[in-house]
Amino acid sequence: MFRESPPVRDEGSVSFSQFNDENVLLQMWQFETGDSVFSSPVLIPASPRHPDASCAAECDPTPCDASTQHTTNGRQAYVIGSHDNHVHCLSEEGLELWKVDMKSPVYATPFHFSTAACDSCEDHSESQPHVSHYIAVVSTQGQMNVLNAADGRCVSGAAIGREVFSSPVVCGDKLVVGCRDDFVYCFQLTFRKVE
Asked: Which of 17, 35, 71, 118 has a Cα-to-Cα distance from 181 of 20 to 30 A?
């Protein structure tokens, strides 16, 4: 169970708690962001590592201000947006794995989605298709990014140029998000191979 703590001296925090065998709620860890947290945490499910480690590097067409200490390495992780202008990825133990600077606060809850294979990589001809996990996130100033959930690298992005407080949603190859200008925007997702 996650609990978002109210801001203290303009600093936000997210904590993870769970019930023990006696049905007592125990706080397992707490992570401090640089500002308030209004978004809900998003679970990135565990998945096996891709057999070809070069695939992830080939799928990164857009430079992004990602600060990567570690990758999820196929383990379960949590993603949160914060008013500190960052999207944070946390391990099951509450350690920051990566963060991405979105240039303005992230109010809306990020959206997790996955694909059965990396659209832009060569056919790996493996018996079981790999699953690639992504996070769609939008800042209050309308910067929208699709991030590789493993390491926070941008794989696609666009600037709406208007205020956004709603969460993005991905259905198939379409990303949809509502905007403060009373319009709903729909974007075609593309993942291009970097040469």
From this structure: 35
Token pair 């259905």: residue:
171
Q: Which residues contact 55 (CB under 8 A, 6 or more apart)?
A: 118, 121, 124, 130
Answer whether 66's CB lies under 8 Å from 57's CB: no
**Contact (CB, 8 A) for 129 and 84:** no
Task: Give the pLDDT confidence of 119-147 residue by residue, as tens digits.
Answer: 445 554 555 566 789 999 999 999 999 99
Whole-model pTM above 0.85?
A: no
Residue 92: CB atoms within 10 Å = 14
Query: pLDDT tens for residues 39-77?
Result: 999 999 886 544 333 333 333 333 455 554 556 677 889
**Residues contacting residue 121 through CB under 8 Å, at least 6 positions apart:** 52, 55, 58, 59, 193
Rounded-to-integer distance, Cα 124 and Cα 114, Å: 18
In this predicted model, which residue has the larger pLDDT, 133 or 3?
133
Q: How far apart are CA 174 and CA 179, in angstroms?
A: 16
Other beta carbons within 10 Å of 128? 8
